[in-house]
Amino acid sequence: MGPGDGRAATLAAFVAAEADDALATFRPRGEAVQLMRAARAREKQRRRTRRAFVGAGAAGTCALVALAVVKLTSPVPAVLSYTVDGATPPSDGYVRSSPAQQPKLAFSDGTDIQMMAKARAHVVEVGRRGARLDLEDGRVHVHVAHRPGADWQVQAGAYVIHVHGTSFFVEWNALAARLDVQMESGVIYGLTAALGNAITIKDGAVEQANFDTYPMLKMADAPEMETHLALSGGKRWGGIGEPATPPIAPAVCNAIFAITGKRIRSLPISDTELTGRT
To answer: Which of 70, 82, 184, 201 could lock onto 107 through a cystine, CB 3.0 to 4.6 A?
Structure first.
């Protein structure tokens, strides 16, 4: 075999290899059509999905806009009004009972407040959802009409009652409450002086100028207190003033003597050694 024959064989081998590669990647016409259709179907599905997302977003936006329009166009409830026994209420909002008259407050939402004998109240504020009543003394019957968003407040001393729709009685004795506060404050002042604090003089002046240098008894150290009134003689009550302050130190010192047998001869008690019995 000559050189020409060798080149021909090499060329034939190359052609055969290329043909094999072409056959390996060749698809019959029917299969190629199926692949093309599948690709088109996938593309259509992706487009439909995108349109669905866009449509949902647009629908949500329209719903929010519609809700905002409804809220903006909904009528705002008017501020409540009220009368006292069918007449215009006092400009300062104060309503008082007398033995001959027990006024009734009637509000435009159907709520009413019936004052009892010797009651004294102040209508502090009237709004769209309710009102705020300060019961200064006495007893009242409150009937709050049930309606969405109702919010009423009845204050009696340091207590605030939030009402959304119910009927109840509420009573506040301002005199007794003030009496309790005065007696308890007197006990605190007396205990502060007896237990640990002293007023000292230096260079002719008091060193304890204010409560930063004369700290009062804290709540954590204060005892529970109850106030009971009893006539000590006669038929008339005297003044209150500060009667709880002077006797508290002797009372504490006597209690310490009963426990330890040691007499306290000077104040404050913290300056006295109390360990052991004498």
So the answer is: 82
